[in-house]
Protein 1
Amino acid sequence: MEYEVIIIGGGIAGLQAAIQLGRAQRSALVIDSNQGRSNLCRTYHNILGWPDGVSGEQLRKLGRQQAESVGIQFMEDTVISAEKGDHIFRVKTKQGSALEAKRILIATGILDRIPDMPEIYQCLGSSVYICPDCDGYEIKDQLTLVAGSGNPGANMALTLSYWTDRLIYINHEQKKVDSRIMKKLKEKNIQYIHIPIKEAIVEKGDFTGFQLADGRLLSAGKCFLAFGGNEVRSGIAKQLGVEVLENNHIKVNRRTQETNVKGVWAAGDVTVHSEQTAIAMGDGLQAAIWIHKSLLQEK
C-alpha cells in the first residue's frame, strides 16, 4: 500500500508529527515497535500543562487517540529495511509488510543502557532518573545514589551536585575514572564506591536503595543512572544514505528537520542530542509542516 508519509517510530516526536500531518489531511502511517524510551518513563515533570507530571504511557495513549481522530493509521511492527526508488520509498517490516511512501520521517529515538535490574524499571521517572535536565530538580537537597560506569557515572554525579550535596556514586561496572574527575568528586565531597550492585531495592513501586555485592545496603529514596553507551537508532537512516554524525545521531536541517536525502526527515532524540520531550514534540511538528509543504510543491 502507498502512503504520502510513513513515520518510523511512534514515540513523542512521531506522534506529534502524525497529529500535524493528519490535520493537514495527509495519508500517513505510523510504524511503531512499541519499544521506545517513552514507554518506560513513569512520570515527566517538566512539560508545560502537567505540573504534577504525566507518564510516557499516558502521553503516547493520548497522542495516538488524537492522531487517529484525524485519520492517521498505526501499525505495531519493526521496520527492517528502507530504500529509495526513483519517486518512491519502499519499506519492509519484520512481520512481512511491504509499504511505499512519498516521504519518510525517521523518529526512532535512542535506547538507554540500563543495567540488568528488572525491578528498577517500575521506578523510572518517579524515583529513578536518567536525565539531569529533566529531573535534577526532583532530588533537590536529598540523598541520591548515582549508579553508573566509569566517567559517565562520575560526570553525572558532578552535574547533580548543583541540586544536592548529598551524593554517592557507585561505579557498578568498575570502569576507570580519570584522575582529574576523581579529584573533582573529592572536591565536591561526593562519596565514591568501587563495588558492583547486587540488586536494587524497591518497595511498593518506590526505589529505596541498593544492596552491594559485598553485602552492604545503601538506603536512599532517589537514584540516577548513568552508564553511557546509549544506542542511537539510526540504522534505517544509514540504509537510506542519510548523513549520520560520529555519535550516530542523524544530521538534519534545524529549520526543516529534513536530512541530506531529499524526501527523508528525522525528528526527536535520534537527531542532534537533546533528549527532551518538549523538544521532540517541536521537532515532530516542524518536520510535519515541511513535509506537507514539500508535498504541496509536487502538485
Protein 2
Amino acid sequence: MRLIGITGGVGAGKSSILEYIRVHYRCRIYLADEVAHEVKKPGQPCYQALVALLGQEILEENGEIHKGRMAEKIFQDASLLEQVNAIVHPAVQAYLLERIREAREDGGVELFFIEAALLIECGYRSIVDEMWYIYTREEVRRRRLEESRGYSEEKIDRIMSSQLTEKEFRSGSDFVIDNSGAPEESFRQIRAKLEGYTWQP
C-alpha cells in the first residue's frame, strides 16, 4: 500500500483531484478537515478538552460543538488557536494512523491518500511515503474562491497569507500537479504518475 499526502493552498482544487482518484483507483481517501470534525464530537478525544478550553458557549443545544461559535471565540483571542491546534492535530493524526493500520491489515487497498492544507506543517512528511503538491496559479485560485465560495478579496488575502508559500510547498513535496488548466490535463498528470507504480486505473 502506498501512502500519499495531498496538500496545496486554498482554492488549488484538491477536492476535484481526489474525486478523480476516488473514481478511478483502488484507494482510501481521508480529508483531515473531516477527521477534525469527527474527533470533536461528544465522546470523541477532543471534545472535553475543547469545551474546557473554550467554554460551554461554543455548544449547540444538542451538545455538539458549533463550528461558527468556536471559530468566533478563537478569532477574538488569537492565542487560543495554538492551544486548539495542540488538542486537535494529535487526535487527527492518531485517528489517521489507526485507519492506515486497518488498511494495511485489510490488504486490498493499493493507495491511501490523506488531504490537508497543513500536512507539511503538521509533520506528515515523516508519515507518508510521498507528498503531492497541488499547484494552481494564484489568479486562478482567487477566481475560483470568488465564484464558488463567494469569498471577498480581503478574506482571500488573509487566508493565503497564513499558508505556506509556493516555494515552501514545493520544497516539502515529492511531486507537483499543475491544476491551473483544464481538468483533463490534471488527470493526465495523475495517470502518468500512478502508472509508474504497479497500479492501473
Protein 3
Amino acid sequence: MPSDRLREVLANQLAELETQGRAKGVETVFTRVIPAGGGLGPRFELQGEDGKRFLRMNSNSYLGMSLRPEVIAAEEEATRAFGTGPGAVRFISGTYDIHLRLEQRLAEFHGRESAMLFSSAYAATMGTLPPLLTPETAVISDALNHSCIISAIRLARPKEKYVYPHLDMGELDAALAKASENCARAVIVTDGIFSMRGDHAPLAEIVALARKYDDAFAENALVVVDDSHGVGAFGKTGRGTEEYTNCEGVDLLIATLGKALGVNGGYVAGSSLIQRFLREQAAFYIYSNPITPAEAAAALAALEVLDSPTGRKLLEHLRAMTRRFEIGLVERGFETIPGEHPVVPLMVRDTGRTSALVEHLRSNGVLATGLNFPVVPKGDEEIRFQISADHTPIDIDTCLEVLSSFQQARDSSPAHQPSASDAENA
C-alpha cells in the first residue's frame, strides 16, 4: 500500500519538532565500558568517536549498581538456571519464584504489606492509576509531574482533574476542598523527586492534607507517589523521599529497578488488597511480560547491597560527590538549585547557550543533557547533571574544569567585552 501522503505529513511533523527544539535527535550509542581505575570512575566509548573516552554525567545509575560484580553474577547465574526470558505474561506461565522473592523483599524494604512488579516504572504508573481513577474520582496532580503520570491520567476517565502549581500546598488544599463537594474518591499523585530539577515533594504535608479531607470522601483520599528518582538515591538508607521527609501514610509507592538499582523494571508497593485489585485490573501488568528471572535476580542482589553497610557507604559517597559538584558550580559563578539529591541542574536560562555548553562538554569528553523550551518553561533552560557513586573527586573536578573553560572562553570573547557605554551605565 502506498504511504506517500502519510510520509509527507510525518516529515512535516518531524521538521516542526526539530524547529521547536523538541526532537530527541540522534541517540548516543555506547560501544564499550572501561571499568573504574586509577582514581577515575568508569569511562565510556561511543560509536563514531574513534575510541575517545567519555565521562558520563547524565546517567540515572546513581549507585553504579549495573557494574557491580555481585549484581552481574546474580544475573548470569539466574540466566543459566531459568533461561533468557519469562516465556509468557505472569497469569499464564510467566511467574518465577525469583519474581515473588523480589516482590517480598521490596515490600519489606519499604515497610509495606505487598509489592508487585511491572516491566518498567512507566508501565507501573500507567497500570496503577487508571484502575483507581473511576468516574466518581478526582485526581489532583503536581504541575511538574513526570510524563508517565500525565499519560496515565489521560488514559483514565476521572470525574474531575486538578493540576496545582509546583509544590503549592495552598492550591492542593483548595483542590481537595472543591473535589470533596462532588467526588466520592480523591487521588493525589506526585513525583517524589522531580527529575528535571532534583527538588522533592513535601510528602508529609501532602499526606497531612489527604488526612484532613479524608472523611469528606466516601472512598477516601489516597496519596500515590512515583519516587523512581528517589529510591536508592535519597534518604539516609536510600528509601527515598518518604525517608528524607520523615513521612508515613503514602498509600501507594511506585518506583523503578532501572535507576539506582541498576537493572530493569518497575514496581508498586502498598496494601495487599490494593495489590490484589491491581493484579486483576492493571492492563500494563496483565498483558505485558514481566522482567526476566535474571533481571529479578540482579535487582534482588542490588537491593541487598543497598540495604547493607556497603549501601550506606555508597550513599555517603554519593552525597559527598553531589556536594562537591554543587559547591564547585557556585564557586565558578554558575546558578544551580541546591539540594541533596544527585540531580544537579545548571540553570543556563538560554536555549542557544545551553546547546553550546552541552556541545563544549561533549567535545571535551563529558556527557551531559541539555533541557530547552518547551521541555522546560522558557527561561528555565538548563543542563541536568546526574551524580553517581561511581564518580570520584577527579571526575567531579574534571567536569567543573571543562565548565570553567567554557565560561572563560565566553568571558574573553570580543562579543562579551563591556563597551564604553556599558561602563558609563554601570
